[in-house]
Amino acid sequence: MLQAIRSQQDPRIDRQQIGTSAGGPNWVEYLTGCYEGLPSQCNDFVGGQKELWDFAFAGADISTTYLPLHHNYSVDLDSQVRQWDQYARPFLPVNISNGLAAFYIGLVLVITKLHYYVKGRDLTSGRINDVSDSDHNTTVISFPDFYASLVSTLFESVETVYSGGYRSFLFMNLPPLERTPGNVVAASQGQPLSPNVTQVQQYNDALAAGVAGFGSKHADVDAMLFDVHTFLNGVIDNGEEYGLKNVTGYCPNYDAPDIATNYAAYGCIPIPEYFWYNTGHITFRVHQILAGAVEDFLAAMSAKRRGR
Predict the structure, then answer these.
(1) pLDDT recorded at residue 46
(2) Cβ(244)–Cβ(285) below 8 Å
(3) Could you tell me where the DSSP H helices lie in the chain?
(4) pTM
(5) CA 7, CA 9: separation in Å to the nearest integer?
């Protein structure tokens, strides 16, 4: 694992408690060693090896073409890429030949939006009524078809990044959302899961097909897909090996200002000993574990390329 990864007692975690969905650093911060400040200053922490230019926005979906904004201030992925292309790309001091473009998107889409509506249409039946014209005539399509459309739109943005010169791409699929605390309770009560394993797998299958198609279209790219779902399923199944004492629930007061030091007062164990930070996000400790696995994956892919 990267030397830059900080221990669980790193004071950065307290300062970042409300800065990420994990209660501390996320996977890409651990992976690069870039936790705060200007990307060019990351060199001070990781020996001049890495910089992180992060355009991701918490709570983003892929595009408002399909779904409304998660919050009225959210920046969806297609807008993130447009902002990068228009305002940042011409000025960023990035060596593109040695750069990696990473895309990790879909959690909000699957865990939140599919419970409710797509363009105002009820999805609870498991099928999608898509508004096709101003008279609100509808065409019923399946979740796999919907996911395929979303992923197609995702790769329109990926093509923009490709046109900007990047040739190495990392894609991350969905974690095991079928095992969130809410779904654990639902399963114990014989209630349907939301999302269920089929929905999660359908999205991940659509993403895998998109990555394969992108790689086939461009012979000069490395299109890499890291299987977050399989890896984190293994972490849940073997939580004690990773120092995790609770892999099914979360601390209800996870966002209390003093939770890092006063967790016992809330009836909780230390946050780094949970797998889930809240109802749908993993803790910073699990992000740290994930970063180590991603680093190993990238190193293996790099070695494979050198051996060609």
Answers:
(1) 52
(2) yes
(3) 11-15, 27-32, 43-46, 77-83, 107-111, 143-163, 181-188, 197-217, 228-237, 259-262, 284-306
(4) 0.85
(5) 5
